Amino acid sequence: MGQNGCHPTGRAGARRGQQQMGDTVTSTPDRAAARLRLMAVHAHPDDESSKGAATMARYVAEGVAVLVVSCTGGERGSVLNPKLDRPDVWENITEIRRAEMDAARAILGVEQAWLGFVDSGLPEGDPLPPLPEGCFALQDVEVAAEPLVRLMREFRPHVVTTYDETGGYPHPDHIMCHRVSMAAFEAAGDPQRYPAAGAAWQPLKLYYHMTFSKPRVLALHEAILSAGLTSPYEEWLAKWEDRWDKSDRITTRVPCGDYFPARDDALRAHATQVDPDGFWFQVPMEIQQRGWPTEDYELVRSMVGRTVPEDDLFAGVRAMVAAR
Ligand SMILES: [Zn+2]
Asked: What distance in angstroms lies between residue 77's CA and the mean position of ligand 1's atoms?
């Protein structure tokens, strides 16, 4: 990342992965792209590999610097891979998930930082149990945003991605990830806010992930059926209610089908969190690449105007950065 002159100088209250920022961008095929930076804010390790992973791998290949921010360590996640559902895995889940994140980060070619908060867990039951003391979702948003503001001011992203107001998935950490991302995006460029967190830097665009849309699942379902295969989406679609669908909010479709294999490899690296024989890996790659070759987003903040629909998270940013 040295080519863009951004070297982090401080600790954000964030704990970085073993690989330090600056070590991962090794080629710069496009001089303008080499100065571009993307920050993807996620709740848990594994979320970066299931939401926007192919987009990140594509931009890395173009020479964009990509930093994944993991708000929590996933300490209260379940073991979702039956082959690893063992006492020794449950006992060491925090360390194992950290190692899984290291592997996924290397596959995607991204940099990664831990924000340092503790997983809130997914409350289950009726009534729902209280959230555990000290967890991420119980933090004050203004306080929890500070380490993210610091990271934004260090890494200086042009584009930030996060979850929508529902979290995209009703996990308290995903909703908190949204709140903290929005608060940090609004504050990072204001020198009056968080004056101890570094020199102000205003990211230019902010997006929500919108890949899990009904039209996409339907397109994949139909592509699978027309190939004469059994669709794993049958039951999902039957239970889908229209109110869940936010596809009318999509502004941006990033072509990234060539990077779906990297996305799947990164997801499999989170071995405790996915069943390699499960649902996610049943759809043949060629059908996915033909059936829906994009990852989709909603543009929600832009300091560089708004020309949608678009197919590039850096639309409007490239020209501005190149001119500087
Ligand atoms: Zn998550």
From this structure: 8
Residue 150 · residue 10 · CB < 8 Å: yes
Rounded to the nearest whole angstrom, what is the distance from the C-alpha of residue 48 to the centroid of ligand 1? Answer: 9
Residue 306 has what DSSP assignment?
-
How is residue 37 annotated by DSSP? E
Q: How far is the CA of 44 from the centre of ligand 1 (A)?
A: 5
Alpha carbon of 143 to ligand 1 centroid (Å):
21
For ligand 1, the distance from its centroid to the CA atom of residue 174, given in whole angstroms, is 6
Ligand 1 midpoint to CA 110 (Å) = 18
How many whole angstroms separate alpha carbon 61 and alpha carbon 28? Answer: 9
Each residue's pLDDT expressed in tens, for the chain with a length of 324 residues:
333 333 333 333 344 443 334 333 344 455 556 689 999 999 999 999 999 999 999 999 999 999 999 999 999 988 989 999 999 999 999 999 999 999 999 999 999 999 999 999 999 999 999 999 999 999 999 999 999 999 999 999 999 999 999 998 889 999 999 999 999 999 999 999 999 999 999 999 999 999 989 999 999 999 999 999 999 898 888 888 766 789 999 999 999 999 999 999 999 999 999 988 887 788 899 999 999 999 999 999 999 998 899 999 999 999 889 887
Question: Among candidates 46, 11, 8, 39, which has minimal Cα distance to 270?
Answer: 46
Closest CA to 154 of 184, 118, 110: 184
Ligand 1: centre distance to CA 170 (Å)? 9
- Angle at CA 251, nearest 5°, toward 46 and 176? 40
| d(CA 90, ligand 1 centre) in Å | 18
